[in-house]
Write a structure and sequence with these properties.
Blueprint lengths: L9 E2 H24 L5 H17 L3 E4 L3 E7 L2 E6 L3 E4 L5 E6 L3 E4 L3 E4 L5 E12 L2 H6 L4 H17 L18 H16 L4 E13 L1 H40 L7 H16 L17
Antiparallel strand pairs: 1-5, 2-5, 3-4, 3-6, 7-9, 8-9, 9-10
């Protein structure tokens, strides 16, 4: 595996000024040599050689923008990476490839996969990433951007098949209910997959989550049924507590003494009143408590 080697090249501005001074002096000597070419043939040839050297050295100048780098190769071998912004001069025989270090966003397509329960769902994710190792990004994979896209979609598919869409059991994580845990798992999977390409994942989260159209209506009914059952459970639990409290208060204050049969009738009536969906009609008892 090729590891990144950060180099700090020669500052370009002083060297450029020096090149311009040498170029000016060399041009002056060249002009004087041409005037007396017969006597100064060697001087003319020397100034021409200096021109050639300066011309060959000019491609060594490069400008690095903020959050940008240049990867240098020399005769097919990795030479180093320049990551510090500024105007520099490097070996003019190196090949220079620009590589941005800026943070970028990538949104996957809406993928259709099966969740952990086998239900078809649609899922998409947003990945925030940046290149941190220029050598690995350039030489370890063929195209690090395409590699990142493919691996991101693969990680999202693997994530969707690891969790159910809805969590029906207590403590079981679900895609729709445990967003923080799911996002952390997705980020971990992406980092493991993209580390070999020199890419750092800064954030990953689900951007789209829905049941597939062919089962969306059925799953909506199931969710509604689950919500109704949960609400009914809470209503019954509260009603039982209220009935129990009422019987305890009646017994403590000696307001009314009921046998088991009357207690059962009272409990039944109170539960009907408290758990019913419609308002109850009161019945006024004009007789005695017990029928004779």
């Amino acid at each position: 595996m090729i590891r990144e080697k950060v180099i700090r090249p020669i500052p370009g501005l002083p060297l450029l000024l020096g090149f311009l001074v040498v170029l000016g002096l060399n041009s002056w000597f060249f002009a004087r040599g041409l005037a007396t070419f017969d006597q100064n043939t060697g001087r003319v040839l020397m100034t021409m050689l200096v021109f050639v050297v300066l011309l060959m050295a000019m491609p060594g100048f490069l400008i690095i923008q903020p959050n940008e780098s240049k990867v240098l190769t020399l005769f097919g071998r990795y030479y180093g990476s320049v990551k510090e912004a500024g105007f520099w001069w490097v070996n003019p025989f190196t090949l220079k490839k620009r590589l941005t270090l800026r943070t970028r966003n990538f949104e996957t397509a809406k993928l259709k996969v099966n969740d952990a329960n086998g239900n078809p769902i649609e899922i998409g994710a947003i990945v925030v990433w940046r290149v941190v190792d220029t050598a690995e990004a350039m030489f370890e994979v063929d195209d690090y951007e395409n590699y990142m896209r493919v691996q991101s979609e693969s990680a999202v598919r693997a994530l969707a098949s690891s969790y159910p869409y809805d969590s029906h059991n207590s403590g079981e994580p679900g895609l729709s209910s445990h967003t923080a845990e799911v996002a952390e798992n997705l980020m971990q999977q992406l980092q493991e997959r993209l580390a070999k390409a020199g890419v750092e994942v800064k954030e990953a989260r689900i951007s789209h989550l829905a049941y597939a159209p062919e089962i969306a209506q059925a799953m909506l009914q199931r969710q509604q049924a689950s919500a109704i059952i949960a609400a009914r459970y809470k209503i019954v639990e509260g009603a039982v507590g209220m009935v129990e409290n009422a019987l305890e208060l009646l017994a403590q204050k000696n307001i009314l003494v009921l046998d088991d049969e009357r207690k059962a009738a009272m409990v039944s009536n109170l539960l009907v009143v408290l758990c019913g969906e419609r308002g109850t009609q009161p019945v006024v008892n004009t007789g005695t408590l017990y029928n004779t």
